[in-house]
Design goal:
The complex is a heterodimer. By secondary structure, chain A is mostly beta strands. Chain A has no helices and eleven strands. In chain A, strand 7 and strand 8 form a beta hairpin. Chain A starts with a strand and ends with a strand. Chain B is mainly beta. Chain B is globular. Classes of the chains: A mainly beta, B mainly beta.
């Protein structure tokens, strides 16, 4: 069964550093997403990406965040200058036209 | 807020018993999905029910959807210790258009005692 692959599974970074979280969505999916989950809390939508551009972003997705699909297979989330409160599990997902989602297994980001 | 609400927040049962979790939402939806998450791990898709469906089964899972009440329930029958996890409902809004984003509920933490 097709999978969404995320790397790394765990990233530790110092406050103020830039991080790039990587994802390989399912190849024939059209929509790509990033969600995050702070420990013990609900899963929150960050951004959706369709037709090579951001289609919607949440209030959380401020100027420190950016997404790219650089080569037609990878989908990345960049945080320019990490803060302690960015520590969370970040999930990549992709879906087809009918909304059938597949989530990756997540990247746990720890900012110290 | 578009956020879904789930109850109970936590549920503890004995192995073999049934577990029922409820989800309520506030807007018109296209479909509603249930996910499972083991502690600190990824989201595993369990089942999807479309807005024109009322009930769906998958193994020991039974999901109902009442669009007039804007609510859904997930029933796990004959629970096992391995069912211990957090369960989240998530729904897709109608007219998602270029977004198709999922709105997640607050989750129910299920503990099944052996």
């Amino acid at each position: 069964e097709p999978e969404v692959t995320q790397t790394p599974s765990h990233q530790v970074t110092q406050m103020g550093q830039e991080v790039i979280l990587r994802c390989v969505p399912i190849s024939n999916h059209l929509y790509f997403y990033w969600y995050r989950q702070i420990l013990g809390q609900k899963v929150e939508f960050l951004v959706s990406f369709y037709n090579n551009e951001i289609s919607e972003k949440s209030e959380i997705f401020d100027d420190q965040f950016s997404v790219e699909r650089p080569d037609g297979s990878n989908f990345t989330l960049k945080i320019r200058s990490t803060k302690l409160e960015d520590s969370a599990m970040y999930f990549c997902a992709s879906s087809g036209l009918l909304g059938g989602y597949t989530f990756g297994s997540g990247t746990r980001l720890t900012v110290v | 807020s578009q956020q879904g609400e789930e109850d109970p927040q936590a549920l503890s049962i004995q192995e073999g018993e049934n577990a029922t979790m409820n989800c309520s939402y506030k807007t018109s939806i296209n479909n509603l999905q249930w996910y499972r998450q083991n502690s600190g791990r990824g989201l595993v898709h369990l089942i999807l029910i479309r807005s024109n469906e009322r009930e769906k089964h998958s193994g020991r899972l039974r999901v109902t959807l009442d669009t007039s009440k804007k609510s859904s329930s997930l029933l796990i029958t004959a629970s096992r210790a391995a069912d211990t996890a957090s369960y989240f409902c998530a729904y897709l809004l109608t007219g998602g258009g270029a977004t198709n984003k999922l709105i997640f509920g607050t989750g129910t933490l299920l503990a099944v005692q052996p």
